[in-house]
Amino acid sequence: MSMTPNLMFKKQGWIEVICGCMFSGKTEELIRRVRTALIAKQKVQLFNSRLDTRYGIGSIISHNQNKVDACCVKNSAEILPLIEKDTQVIAIDEVNFFDKGIVEVCEKLANQGKRVIVAGLDTDYRAEPFEVTAALMAKAEFVMKNHAVCTKCGNPATFTQRMTKDTKRIVVGTTDAYQARCRRCYRKPKERKAK
Ligand code: ADP
Ligand code: MG
Ligand code: ZN
Fold first, then answer.
1. Per-residue confidence (pLDDT) for residue 14, from 0 to 100
2. Alpha carbon nearest to ligand 1 atom 7, residue
3. Is 78 a catalytic residue?
4. Which has the higher per-residue pLDDT, 175 or 165?
5. Is 26 in the pocket of ligand 1 (CB under 6 A)?
6. For residues 91 and 109, is the Cβ–Cβ distance under 8 A?
7. How confident is the model at residue 194 (pLDDT cuts 50, 70, 90)?
8. Intra-chain end-to-end CA distance of the chain, in Å
9. Side-chain half-sphere of 139: how many Cα atoms within 13 Å?
10. CA of residue 30 to ligand 2 center, whole Å
11. Is the separation of the CB atoms in 158 and 183 below 8 Å?
């Protein structure tokens, strides 16, 4: 298990990646880290993709009444202008929904001395890597891979099985459209022949 420091690297930024399949607790882990930072009285800014219309991560209020609102952005270019100078921690959920510019945005912020925490799917419904998550994993100081529970057999699940016939890469949905599956129970969808 990777270490997730709160108070390491004084005067230097870094990148943390939380990845895994759907339902593996990526958002829960991101929120836990944000809460801990708030308890430590750090200034946090939280971002979410506008593509994620499911339930939103809304705002988080810590026990000492610090509050962060999740800011919904359209693309990676919208993030940097929104960052306030005294922000110490930047958290981004569903990083796989972003364009590839998000990698440079995260690097810039880390180079400015900020702690950057991103959460996102490592692979799509065809079990192929999401390029932005893969790049961020390679460039990050810390990577955590979460497991869900396989819906069929209860083993640790690392794959996301799409239950609909959609072939678009990004289709927003929850348990109606996706199931967590282990390596044995995951079935790769057949490639649709273009007509
Ligand atoms: P992610 O952001 O990785 O999609 P969330 O943090 O939103 O995951 O949700 C994780 C929660 O989902 C778990 O704590 C659990 O309550 C619920 N859940 C639903 N289905 C599963 C499953 N198959 N395996 C594990 N957790 C599941
Ligand atoms: Mg999530
Ligand atoms: Zn299984």
1. 96
2. 27
3. no
4. 165
5. yes
6. no
7. low
8. 46
9. 22
10. 9
11. yes
